[in-house]
Amino acid sequence: MAQQDTDQQHAGVLPVDDEGFVVDTEDCEERESAWRERGTSRPITVVGNPVLHKECADVTDFGDEFQQLVADMFASQRTAEGVGLAANQIGVSKKVFVYDCPDDQGVRHVGVVCNPKLVELPAERRSLDDSNEGCLSVPTAYAPLARPDYAEVTGQDERGNAIRVRGTGYFARCLQHETDHLYGYLYIDRLSKRERKDALRQMAENEPRYPVVAND
């Protein structure tokens, strides 16, 4: 990485490692708590709500109103006991997601990604993991879904600084899942018709454990 890019990265909210990826594993409790305590928990939008099924708008204004949105997202994520939350899951069509997610080694990752784009990995770096996946917007439903067990995302932090985030295992799944949300895709859209029908059946048969916005 060129020196100019490195300087830009270090001007961001989080430090970066030698390869230019954010270090999102330090001071996790303090950072998550600081966001959450400033926020107000909002109900979760569920599958069928139009805001979940279209691409969100890019974040271009990182001012006070946006900072409050991020705080509300962290508060909402905690209420719903989630590991990741996209803005459209609380009804706001903006390209931003927050996460508080462990990887397969149990290491906690906390951060904010705006305007994310998944990095296309070469075939030799793709190893699929077909673990179960769930979604706060499809409450109480789970289904196995094959995704790469490593992911890289480029985007911006909550102040607009360019960032790169990477994850393995469960955290890699989270990065892919939340980025999908911001482009109008739910994980059930990647399932077969039969699997999708089963996931919706699970949702219909159970009560969510957190407040949701009912679809009219």
UniProtKB/TrEMBL annotation:
Enzyme class (EC, first level): hydrolase
Enzyme Commission number, as recorded: 3.5.1.88
A Pfam family hit: Pep_deformylase
Superkingdom: Bacteria
InterPro entries xrefs: Peptide_deformylase (IPR023635), Peptide_deformylase_sf (IPR036821)
BP terms from Gene Ontology: translation
Keyword Lipid metabolism in annotation: no
Active site: 178
Alphabetic keyword roster: Hydrolase, Iron, Metal-binding, Protein biosynthesis
Annotated cofactor note: Binds 1 Fe(2+) ion.
Binding-site list for Fe cation: 135, 177, 181
Cofactor: Fe(2+)
GO terms, molecular function: metal ion binding; peptide deformylase activity
Catalytic activities: N-terminal N-formyl-L-methionyl-[peptide] + H2O = N-terminal L-methionyl-[peptide] + formate
Family: Belongs to the polypeptide deformylase family.
Purpose of the protein: Removes the formyl group from the N-terminal Met of newly synthesized proteins. Requires at least a dipeptide for an efficient rate of reaction. N-terminal L-methionine is a prerequisite for activity but the enzyme has broad specificity at other positions.
Protein name in UniProt: Peptide deformylase
Lineage of the species this protein comes from: Bacteria, Bacillati, Actinomycetota, Actinomycetes, Kitasatosporales
